[in-house]
Write a structure and sequence with these properties.
This protein is of the alpha+beta class. Helix content is 30%, strand content 15%. The chain has 33 helices and 33 strands. The strands form eleven sheets. Strands 25, 26, 28, 29, 30, 32 and 33 form a seven-stranded antiparallel beta sheet that branches. A six-stranded antiparallel beta sheet has the order 1-4-5-6-7-8, with helices on both faces. The longest helix is centred in the middle third of the chain and has 22 residues, at 593-614. The protein is elongated, with a radius of gyration of 35 Å.
C-alpha cells in the first residue's frame, strides 16, 4: 500500500465526521446482490494525464458508483491482520472488496490467463477492526430483516461517519507497465468534503508528497509482487455467493467502547505486553508452580472465644490427621459418555469455553481487569463465579453434611433410624443433585448394572475415580467402585447441567385441572423437577453456536426462556418435608385438615413422579407423615410485589446481576458486554479445516448475566476458602489464573448486604432526664423474607450507646468474638442457646418479637424458631411441629391468605393458600403490621448510667446477619459429636479466622445508622 495514502488516511480519521444529509444519503447507489454486473464506463488510466484521470476516477469512487453496477463484493468486512491493544497489524485497515465482472470471470476461470484491461478491484477501507462493522450490520439485519437496501444504506453511512471510509484501487491497463496495474488511494480531506463526496486530487504543490495514483506503483508492488498470478491476491472464498470463508485474524476487544477494567492489558502499552508474553513459559510445569505459589496454609490456631462457648467435649475436637477431607475438585471429572451422552457432566467439561480469559495474550473474556498482568482482576465468567458461590459449593458444604449427621442421629433417637437413607437421599437430590439424579437414572435405565438408585449415601461424596490399581481393588472390595462416578458428580453441588436441564412441571394424568402456579406447587418442589433430554441444554439466547458443544459433548444448546423464570429456582427453594415426630392422624398445629391434605398430596405426587419416571421409591416411607413447608423463598417472592407486573424483579434479576462493582467503588460498570464463551472463533487466526465461520462466530452480548448466586452465607464460603486444602478446592482459577474467586464471592455478598438487603434508620432520638428514646426502623429491601431460606438463619439488631470517649455505656444485641449475644455482664443471654428452662417452666426461653426494648437483655432478632413434638427447640428439618416465633420481615406487598389482596393476586385456589401460609409471620409478629409490611418499627428506652450526659452520647443501630447462629452450632456439636462431618465442622469453625473479614466476630454487617441528640 502507498505510504502517502496511509498518512492521508490517518489525517482523515482524526477529523470528527458529520452525518450526511438525507439528500446525500439518497444519492448513494444501492447494491443489488441479484442484479447483473456491468463493467465500468471509465477510460483507461493510460488514456488521460494523471490528474485528469484522477478527476474522473476518484469522484466516481468517492460516490461509490460501482455499487450501482452490481459488482460482486466480499462476504463481509475483513481484517488483513491481527488487531490487538488497539493497534492493527494488518497491511491495510479493515477492508471490503468490490470486483468488476472482468475480474470475477478471471477468478472463476481458476486464476489462469491474463486479466483484461479495464478490470477493477476496489478496496473499501475503514478504521479497523472489521468486527465493529460486521456486528453493526448484523444489528441492522435484525432491525430491518426485509429491507436489505436500508441495511446497506445505513451501513454505508456508518462506514463514512464512523469508519472514515477511504479506498485503494487497482485498475488494469497493460499499457502502463510490466505489471499492468494502476494503483490509487482515494480519501477525503475533511468532513465537509466527505459530505460532498469530494475526494482529494493530487496537486503536486507543497508540501510535497508522493502521488495518490500511479501505474506500477512500487510501494504497492512490494507486496503484490509476491502474488502467484497477475500481482493480485483476490480469492473467490472472500466473495459473496461462493463457497468457503475468508481468512480471519486475532482481534481483541481494545476497540470496543468498554470500561477500562474490561480492556485488554488494562491500558498497558504494547512493549510491556510483549515482555509479559515472552517471559511466560506457558507450560504445565509453570502452571503447576503458579498453583503452588498461590496456595495458603490453612488456619491451625484455635479461637479460644469460640471454644469457650462450644467446649471440645465428647471427642468432637480431633487432630488434623484424623479429619475427614474431601477429594480434589479436579477429581470431580465426569465427561460425556462415548456413544450416548448422559444428563449430568461435571463443570470441567464447561470451564474451557465458559471459564473466562484473563488478558493478554489470550484476550479478555468475562473478566474485569485491575492490572496489566494476565489474571490480574476478577473472573466473572459463568464458571468463575459459580465455582465460589453457595450453589457451586453445595456438594462440599461442611455445614450441610453435619446437618445430615444430626438428622440421622435424631431419627435413631426417635426409633426411626431406618428412615435415614430416605431422608438423606431426599436432601442430596438438591445438594448432590447431579450424582443423586444420575444414579437414579442409570439404575432405572440399566438394571443389569446392579445399582441401587434408591439410596444416595453421603459417603459417596468421598469417592473418586481410582487413581491406582490399589485404589480400584479397594473400592471393588468394599462395594463402592460402581458408585465413584456419582460421587464425582455430587461434589459439584448445583452445577451447570442441573439448572440448564430443568424443564417446567406438568400435571400428571388424573390430576385436577390446576392453574400454572398450582401445577408447580403440586408437582415441582422439594428437588423434584422434569428435565430436558440428555442431549439438550437450555439457555437464554436463541442465536447460539451449537456445533462446538455438539462436537465436544454430543449436546445441543437450545433456547428456552424457562431458564430466566423464577419458578425454575423454586424447584430447590420451596421445600415441603415430613414431620416425623408429629401425630399422623391429625393436622400439624395451625393447619386445617384441608390445608394439611394439600401439602401431603404434593409429597405424594413427588413419590408418584419419581416412581413413574425412574422406578425410584425412596420417598415413599416419608409420605405417611404430616408435611409442612420448611423453606419458602420462592413462595415469599411469589407473594410479593416483586412477582407482580409493573414491579417485578425475578430471582435472576437480583442474584445474576448484569453489572459489576468493586466493594471500594473504584470500579463500577453498569452493564457488562462480553462474549459468553471463548472458543476458536472468528476473532482468532484461521486454522485449516475449521468449522464454517458462521458456526463458530461467538457474538458479544450486552446483557451478560453473572453467575454469582450469592445470598449472605459468607460463613460457608469463608470456611471453604480458608480451608481449601481440607475441602479439596484449588487456590487458582484454571482459565484466568485469578486467585480471588472466594473474595469476589464474599465481596458480592458484602455489596448485597450493604445496598440491597435492608435499610436501618434511627428515625428519631429524644431525651428526658437520664433516658433516651430511639425509634428505629428496619426496612426489608429483598424480594423475600429477611432472612430467608433455612429456618435457622437469623438477623438481629445491635443498639449500642457510646459516650464522648467512645466507651460503650449501654447495648442491646452486642456479641462476643464467637458471635454469641451477651448481656451487660458479658455472659451469653439465657435466650441465646434456646436450652435454658427456668425453674417451674416447661419450655426454654427465647427472645420474642419486640415492639419496645427497655433492657439490655432484650434483643430484636428476626428469625424463625421451631419446636419438636416435645416443645424443645430444634434445628432439625423434619421435627418442625410447633412455631412459637417467626418475625422474619416480609417482602413488600405480601398478602395474607383469605384477604381481598391475596385473592386479587392468586384467586381462590386452596392449593395456593395452603402453600402461601408458609409465608406468614407466627407468634407475636403475626399481630405486627410492620412485619407484615416488611418494615419493622421498634422503640428503645435507654436508661443511661449515672453521670452520663445524654447530649454527649452516640446511638449506633446496626443490623447483623448470622447464617449459622450459635444455637445452631451448639445443636450440631451436641447432637452428633462422633460424626466425622460434625467433627470436621467443629475443626473448621473453631479455627476459622474472622478478624478483619466480612464475618468479624462471627456476624455479617448488613447496614446501620447513628444519631445524637441535637
Amino acid at each position: 500500500m502507498r505510504r502517502p495514502g496511509i498518512f492521508a488516511l490517518v489525517l482523515c480519521l482524526c477529523q470528527v465526521l458529520a452525518p450526511l444529509t438525507a439528500a446525500q444519503q439518497a444519492a448513494d447507489p444501492v447494491y443489488d446482490l441479484g442484479g447483473t454486473a456491468k463493467p465500468a464506463d471509465l477510460p483507461l488510466p493510460g488514456s488521460l494525464p494523471l490528474i485528469d484521470y484522477e478527476k474522473v476516477l476518484f469522484p466516481w469512487i468517492a460516490r461509490r458508483e460501482y455499487v450501482g453496477l452490481n459488482w460482486k463484493r466480499d462476504k463481509r468486512w475483513r481484517d488483513t491482520g491481527p488487531f490487538v491493544f488497539n493497534m492493527s497489524f494488518g497491511i491495510h485497515p479493515a477492508v471490503r472488496m468490490y470486483y468488476s465482472p472482468e475480474l470475477i470471470t478471471w477468478l472463476e476461470g481458476g486464476r489462469t490467463g491474463a486479466i483484461p484491461d479495464g478490470a477493477i478491484v476496489i478496496k473499501e477501507m475503514v478504521t479497523p477492526p472489521a468486527a465493529r462493522y460486521n456486528e453493526y450490520r448484523a444489528a441492522l439485519v435484525a432491525q430491518y430483516p426485509d429491507d436489505p437496501a436500508k441495511v446497506d444504506a445505513e451501513l454505508t453511512d456508518y462506514a463514512y461517519d464512523t469508519g472514515g471510509l477511504n479506498w485503494t484501487v487497482m485498475v488494469k491497463d497493460s499499457s502502463l507497465s510490466h505489471g499492468g496495474w494502476f494503483f490509487a488511494s482515494v480519501y477525503f480531506a475533511d468532513k465537509d468534503d466527505m459530505a460532498a463526496r469530494k475526494p482529494v486530487i493530487d496537486s503536486f504543490e507543497p508540501p510535497y508528497s508522493p502521488p495518490l495514483g500511479a501505474g506500477g506503483d512500487g510501494m504497492c508492488m512490494r507486496c503484490h509482487a509476491s502474488a502467484a498470478e497477475e500481482l493480485i491476491f483476490s480469492a473467490l472464498e472472500n466473495v459473496e455467493g461462493y463457497p468457503d470463508d475468508p481468512l480471519i485474524f486475532r482481534v481483541d476487544d481494545s476497540w470496543r467502547d468498554l470500561p477500562k477494567p474490561q480492556k485488554p492489558a488494562f491500558g498497558a502499552d504494547l512493549s510491556a505486553m510483549i515482555t509479559s508474553y515472552l517471559s511466560d513459559a506457558h507450560d504445565p510445569g509453570a502452571m503447576r508452580a503458579a498453583h503452588v505459589a498461590a496456595a495458603k496454609a490453612s488456619p491451625v490456631e484455635v479461637n479460644k472465644e469460640f471454644t469457650a462457648m462450644f467446649p471440645p467435649t465428647d471427642g468432637i475436637d480431633i487432630a488434623r490427621a484424623q479429619l475427614q477431607t474431601l477429594p480434589s475438585e479436579w477429581l470431580d471429572h465426569v465427561p460425556a459418555r462415548p456413544n450416548d451422552t448422559q444428563h449430568f457432566l461435571t463443570s470441567d467439561n464447561c470451564v474451557g469455553c465458559h471459564g473466562g480469559l484473563g488478558g493478554a495474550p489470550s484476550g479478555v473474556t468475562m473478566f474485569i481487569k485491575t492490572g496489566s498482568e494476565y489474571g490480574k482482576g476478577y473472573n466473572i465468567s459463568e464458571y468463575g463465579e459459580w465455582r465460589w458461590s453457595p450453589m457451586g459449593l453445595a456438594g462440599r458444604d461442611p455445614i450441610f453434611y453435619a446437618q445430615l449427621e444430626s438428622e440421622f442421629a435424631l431419627l435413631k433417637q426417635a426409633g426411626a433410624g431406618e428412615l435415614s437413607d430416605n431422608l438423606g437421599t431426599t436432601c442430596l437430590s438438591c445438594h448432590g443433585a447431579m450424582g443423586q439424579r444420575q444414579l437414579e437414572i442409570d439404575a432405572h435405565d440399566n438394571p443389569d448394572l446392579g445399582l441401587d438408585g434408591n439410596v444416595f449415601k453421603p459417603d459417596y461424596a468421598l469417592l473418586h475415580t481410582p487413581l491406582t490399581t490399589e485404589q480400584k481393588d479397594k473400592q471393588i472390595a468394599d462395594g463402592t467402585y460402581e458408585y465413584h462416578v456419582y460421587g464425582n458428580l455430587a461434589r459439584e453441588g448445583i452445577s451447570c447441567s442441573v439448572c440448564h436441564h430443568i424443564a417446567p412441571p406438568e400435571r400428571a394424568e388424573g390430576q385436577p385441572d390446576y392453574n400454572p402456579l398450582d401445577t408447580y406447587l403440586m408437582n415441582g418442589t422439594t428437588g423434584v423437577f422434569r428435565m430436558t433430554p440428555a442431549d439438550k441444554l437450555i439457555g437464554p439466547f436463541a442465536d447460539v453456536r451449537q456445533k462446538p458443544m455438539e462436537n465436544a459433548m454430543g449436546i445441543t444448546p437450545v433456547h428456552d426462556d424457562y431458564i430466566k423464570d423464577s419458578e425454575m429456582c423454586g424447584a430447590c427453594h420451596t421445600i415441603n418435608l415430613p414431620n416425623v415426630d408429629a401425630p399422623t392422624d391429625a393436622p400439624l398445629p395451625g393447619f386445617t385438615a384441608a390445608e394439611q391434605a394439600v401439602l401431603n398430596k404434593a409429597a405424594q405426587n413427588a413419590v408418584s413422579f419419581l416412581s413413574d419416571q425412574y422406578g425410584a421409591t425412596y420417598r415413599e416411607p416419608l409420605v405417611k407423615f404430616q408435611h409442612s413447608v420448611e423453606q419458602a423463598t420462592f413462595l415469599e417472592w411469589k407473594n410479593s410485589q416483586y412477582a407482580d407486573a409493573g414491579t417485578a424483579r425475578s430471582c435472576q434479576d437480583c442474584h445474576m446481576k448484569g453489572n459489576f462493582e468493586t466493594l471500594d467503588g473504584k470500579i463500577k460498570i453498569d452493564g457488562l458486554t462480553t462474549q459468553i464463551a471463548s472458543i476458536q472463533d472468528t476473532n482468532l487466526p484461521d486454522v485449516p479445516h475449521a468449522l464454517p465461520q458462521d458456526e463458530i462466530e461467538v457474538p458479544f452480548r450486552d446483557n451478560f448475566k453473572r453467575h454469582s448466586f450469592v445470598g449472605l452465607n459468607a460463613f460457608m464460603v469463608a470456611m471453604l476458602s480458608q480451608f481449601d486444602e481440607e475441602m479439596g478446592l484449588g487456590p487458582k482459577d484454571p482459565m484466568t489464573y485469578a486467585t480471588n474467586g472466594a473474595r469476589l464471592s464474599m465481596d458480592t455478598m458484602a455489596l448485597q448486604a450493604r445496598d440491597e438487603t435492608a435499610d436501618v434508620k434511627i428515625q428519631s432520638l429524644t431525651g428526658s432526664g437520664g433516658t433516651l428514646t430511639a425509634l428505629v426502623t428496619v426496612d426489608n429491601k429483598t424480594g423475600h423474607r429477611l432472612p430467608s431460606g433455612v429456618g435457622f438463619r437469623r438477623a438481629f439488631l445491635e443498639l449500642r450507646v457510646t459516650d464522648a470517649t467512645g466507651k460503650q455505656v449501654w447495648c442491646s444485641g452486642c456479641t462476643n468474638g464467637a458471635g454469641v449475644i451477651i448481656g451487660p455482664d458479658g455472659d451469653p443471654l439465657n435466650t441465646e442457646f434456646l436450652d435454658f428452662v427456668p425453674e417451674g417452666a416447661t419450655e426454654a426461653l427465647y427472645q420474642p418479637h419486640h415492639d419496645l426494648i427497655d433492657d439490655q437483655t432484650q434483643v430484636q432478632i428476626y428469625e424463625e424458631l421451631t419446636q419438636n413434638a416435645n416443645k424443645q427447640f430444634t434445628t432439625s428439618f423434619v421435627h418442625r411441629v410447633y412455631h412459637p416465633k417467626d418475625n422474619r420481615l416480609l417482602p413488600w406487598g405480601a398478602a395474607k391468605p383469605g384477604t381481598e389482596a391475596f385473592e386479587k393476586r392468586f384467586g381462590t385456589s386452596d392449593v395456593t393458600a395452603a402453600f402461601m401460609k408458609a409465608t406468614m409471620p407466627e407468634g407475636r409478629a403475626a399481630e405486627d403490621p410492620g412485619v407484615m409490611a416488611g418494615k419493622d418499627e421498634l422503640t428503645y428506652k435507654i436508661a443511661l448510667p449515672d453521670g452520663v450526659d445524654p447530649k454527649s452520647v452516640t446511638v449506633h443501630a446496626t443490623l447483623y446477619s448470622q447464617a449459622i447462629p450459635p444455637y445452631y452450632l451448639k445443636q450440631r456439636f451436641e447432637t452428633a459429636p462422633d460424626g466425622p462431618a460434625t467433627q470436621r465442622l467443629y475443626y473448621l469453625a473453631s479455627r476459622l479466622k474472622t478478624e478483619g473479614t466480612l464475618i468479624e466476630n462471627w456476624k455479617l454487617k448488613i447496614q446501620g445508622d447513628t444519631a445524637q441528640l441535637p
